[in-house]
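Below is our example:

___
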Amino acid sequence: MDSEQKALGILVGGGPAPGLNGVIAAVTIEARRHNLKVYGIYDGYKWLVQNDEKKLYEHVRELRIKDVSRIHFTGGSILRTSRTNPVKVKNGVENAVENLKKLGVNYMVTTGGDDTAFGASSIAAATKGLVKFAHVPKTIDNDLPLPNDLPTFGYQTARNLGAVLVKNMMEDSRTTGRWYIVVAMGRHTGHLALGITKSAGSTLAIIAEEFGNEGDISVNQVADILETAILKRRAMGHDHGVLVISEGVAERFTEADLFKAAGHRIEKDSYGHIQLADVELGKIIKREVEQRFQDRGEKFRMVEINIGYVLRCADPIPFDQEYTRDLGYHAVHYLLSNRPQDQSNAMICVENGRLTPIKFEDILDPKTGKTAIRFVDTESDYYRVARSYMVRLEKRDLEDKELLKIMAQELKMTPEAFVNRYRYLVE
């Protein structure tokens, strides 16, 4: 390596998102234009945190402009990705610092969600200024605390494709007289499920934030919301519908509920999250609601489908193609900036076409020490609009004597018993 030529490394962490290749391309092109060597590091932090020089060099690739030309149109990541947590690997942070030294990396671009950002901040602090970091926020969950509700890249593409899929399911449900349960990604938040619901006009959405941002959520309560939505739709003369539910609801189920539903203990990943793919949220809700109808002597079948993995590696729509080019360009210019205010390690944001860096320490939650989460604000007009177009039990329904009578009859209850049973949902 030319001792006079500085080098920039780039890696991708966490789950895939549309636009990753756009960031890789934009960073590589702009860095090469500034006479930097560019090293693509495969599989997130996986090899960077190991004390294995041979494996490290086997998983590092020098990138040139010809290697990344036109990849911004494609989904996935040419550098792949992983969920390795540097803090959880023995001597992982220290190994990462030593490996960056061996590679001769002066600047580092990481792209990922809250966990990847936390890993970047941990390694950046350990380098003590030797390597300057810029983190490009990515997640289809849209849950990173960007200013003025800026979306994270990948979200718009995921919402776009998700809305198309749900629209098709809505037509299928109408044609066949069937109910669908659609599970969308969103470990901590319901941005994606809500965005898909508003765009496609599905029957209703259920997100974790509607139960408050802390505390347990019971399977019975979720089933109650869906069951009463089905009853209300029937009372309105419709035998079909589509529920979009955020996978993060399962994150807050009690351990007893999860064990009962799955039949075994759900394992956790290196960041302490339960493995949501093993929970099968749609099946849990489907079984519970179907059993209720069966207990009343009615054969009722629902269809559940998880669209999460279908959305993550979609080709980005033009919004994310443009957005990721802006982010990659500004990441390089931030790293090379000599302005005093640009000397910290930072998360890269582009607001109104201008670079708006956020220092790593400013995105940490003081309670947890981890990257802060942007939840759906259930007091906002945005959420109020979403709820106003959903078909689900509302307080006014319990005051509508005719509607209440029809719903109660479905359950072979008196109207008074129905109110006593389900009033808590609207209080």
Summary: Residues 155-176 form the longest helix (22 residues).
